Amino acid sequence: MLKVGDKAPAFKGIIETGDAVSLADYKGKKLVIYFYPKDGTPGCTAEACDLRDNYTSFVKQGYAILGVSPDSVKSHMNFKKKHDLPFSLIADEDHSIAEAFGVWGEKSMYGKTYMGIIRTTFVIDEKGKIITVIEKVNTKEHSAQLL
Predict the structure, then answer these.
(1) Is 44 marked active-site?
(2) DSSP string of 40-77?
(3) Has this prediction a pTM greater than 0.70?
(4) Which of 35, 46, 93, 133 lies at a C-alpha separation of 20 to 30 Å from 105?
(5) Annotated catalytic residue: which of 14, 23, 31, 44?
(6) Cβ atoms within 10 A of the Cβ of 50, count?
(7) Pairing relation of β-strands 120-124 and 30-35?
């Protein structure tokens, strides 16, 4: 996993509108990029809605927000619309972005092991350097962990 001081990977992905997005689009801006397992699940919905409810505070401090999960563009479009999310979600179906950030790994639930996204948030500064990494995300109060 990447750590504070590392250069953020030069990712490229497709957001819920079908448009391309990349790290280069945020050059000169601060970016919160959060990785979450699945649209519509209780924890992921709580996390997205907490970020939504505090979005103006992020904007006032000069931050953009991007969510990343292995869900499809269509799933992201529905999730964003249903919860009125003001930020974009990247469809990382091949998990290449998650792998570049080191957050695609082995997980376990109910005694089964599988590969998936390890819920993690990175804050990237205007020069593309990682300045914060949150590995123990509190989904209901994630904004408080960041702001």
Answers:
(1) yes
(2) TSHHHHHHHHHHHHTHHHHHHTTEEEEEEES--HHHHH
(3) yes
(4) 46
(5) 44
(6) 19
(7) antiparallel
